[in-house]
Amino acid sequence: MKQSFSKSIIQSCLNVPGPRRELWIASLGCLIGSTLLILAIQLYQDTSSLLNEKEVAKNYFTLNKKVEGGALVNLGKNERTFSTEELNEIKTLEGVQRIGGFTRNQFPLTLYIWPSGKVGLGAAAKTDLFFESIPDEFLDFVPEDWHWDENSEIVPIMVPKFYLDLWNFGLAPSRVEYPALSTDAATGMPIELFIGKNRETTLEGRFVAFSKRINSVLVPKNFLEWANKKFGQPEANDFLFLWKEGSIEGPPITRSTLATLRNELEFKNWEISPLENPAERSPATQALLEGKKKTGPSRIILEIEDNPSTSFTSHIQKKGYEINREFPEQDIIKKVIQTLFLGMVGIGALLSLLSITTFATSFRLVVAQASEQAKNLLLLGFSNVQVSHVIFTRFLKLFIFILGGSVIAGYTLKSLLANQAIAYGITINSGISFQTFAYIFVYGLIYIFINQRVIEKSVVRLID
Amino acid sequence: MLIELNQVKPEPIPKEMVARSDVWGTRLNIEPKSFTLISAHSGKGKSTLLHLLYGLRNDYSGEASIDGQSVEKQEMGDWTRLRSQKIALLFQELRLFPKLSAQENITLIPESNPQVPSDTEMAERLGMEEFLSKPIENLSFGQRQRIAIIRTLRKPFKLLLLDEPFSHLDKKNEKLSSSLIEEIARANEATVLVTSLGESPPLPFDRTLSL
Q1: Which domain holds residue A311?
Q2: Which of A152, A197, B62, B158 could be bridged to B7 by S-S, CB 3.0 to 4.6 A?
Q3: Whole-angstrom Cα distance, residue A323 to residue B57?
Q4: Residues of A in Cβ contact (< 8 Å) with B154
Q5: Which of A9, A375, A380 best tests the B interface by mutation, with the highest count of B CBs <10 A?
Q6: Which residue of B has its CA nearest to A384?
Q7: Does residue A2 form part of some domain?
Q8: How confident is the model over A18-54, as pLDDT tens digits?
Q9: What confidence tens digit (pLDDT) does each residue in A275-289 have?
Q10: ipTM above 0.85, yes or no
Q11: Is there a contact between B100 and A386 if contact means CB atoms under 8 Å apart?
Q12: Are A357 and A382 members of one domain?
């Protein structure tokens, strides 16, 4: 006995058009459902991995001592800094994971920003500014170009994203010489950094990223330390009142100015007092011996687990510190996004389930339309497996085509979203992970298994 | 193959018909390699008997067996094996594929018997060689009947069931077909059951049963 039939003949005699409308609906449902599922599974993984990273999962706050009084009172006053004891106290508060100090520039700084993209071309936006730096681990992300050494030509600068928004929606519309800038264009702008009262030194800078978390103009910590050492005016915040014969003599003077007066005949009788407490007088000679007290940072950044505890809040209030949460909405957005992706998984799964049902119904109809031919084949002695295999192969080809389309669509949409996410400071890979492929493989197997069973049962029913 | 029927009574057949029948409600053995004619008018259950032996209906009482195996107890897989290797049935309604050619219809069987004459030879003997390439839907019923006979004979079988095989054939073609059937059935050492409306086809029947 030998096999005499050709598979193509079986295929051709079972080749019925099928319910076109139902097949289209099932295919479309499967395509949309599978794409949503792929996208949701992938994006859920991406956001989960982002949220699991320590710097994103925590809440960040900045802390400083309250600034009180008017400009005249505060002019020349020392910054209200945190002492080592105060910092240690804060470190031990409930929920505080780590703290980091802001380092500030100790030199006058003026920026010329050239929105045209070339120095000297068009109008420059000029501004006196400050720089701050914090340890890198407190940044919401470390940009690729975020490094500096003494040989670097460019000083990387990171500003809050809303500075760019202020430029685009505030400054640019009101000034014809300032164009609106995309993130890419803004990162390409040359920036001249003039350092010193008389702009003795010029450096070149660039915005390398826009922070969603830190509300400050940031530069790398090693740059600021280097610049403060090289250009810093250590006495910038060290002004003193000079007392002669029981009354204040002239405007506040710096400690170095005081040193130049040490040869004056009456110097040993003179007194000095700090600006913030004029009554606290001490001999001028002693002030020269003491020098300026080493001070801690005036602003610190804290990483706090979850929301601040009551004991933390009451300590802050008791001490009269000012606390600011650094852009908490970013975390909220990410949590909302994660919830949305979970929703997408649900919708995708629901659509896929519906499409499985529609496919199953459609292929029951295919079997019904080919029932006469299928029954004849069974009566000739072909097995139900042989007959259903022909119809199942037809389903399989269509399903693989749709699933392939879903993977391509998912990949494309994911890449587009990944590009969009960069603008918000979120870096996600553009590809589809192995894990997602594994999920889709299992999903595909379930889909195939259900439809195979439906087709086989429909065929068996023809002669059962 | 030995066929044993013990008090088999199909549900749709009226009791009075069963009472007059040589087959229904009796104990009957159809011996291996024998040729049996089942003769009856329409509606007496000729096709029912063949379909019952082919596993297509189970609306009957009594016991039917083939080679000692109960027909009722055969599973779907058993029937697939029996239909592809042991039993060949020529349906009254032929069950050909109208869109396929005569040749394609002849070859469209799960397994073929290599001992039988070639398709072309059989077609020649039945005067069908020039119609082999034509679609079934373009052939007359008589021509289709001959194609269906060739397809049935190509299958490997030990039991050949022919349901009014010559209903649309003239005497000449009936004779040619009968000759081919006898030759192949003998070569296969098969049991042959043929139904007819009354006239006896030119086959060497060992017995004739009336329904």
Answers
A1: 67-100+302-319
A2: B62
A3: 87
A4: 4
A5: A380
A6: B80
A7: no
A8: 788 888 888 888 898 889 888 888 888 887 776 665 4
A9: 766 777 888 887 777
A10: yes
A11: no
A12: yes
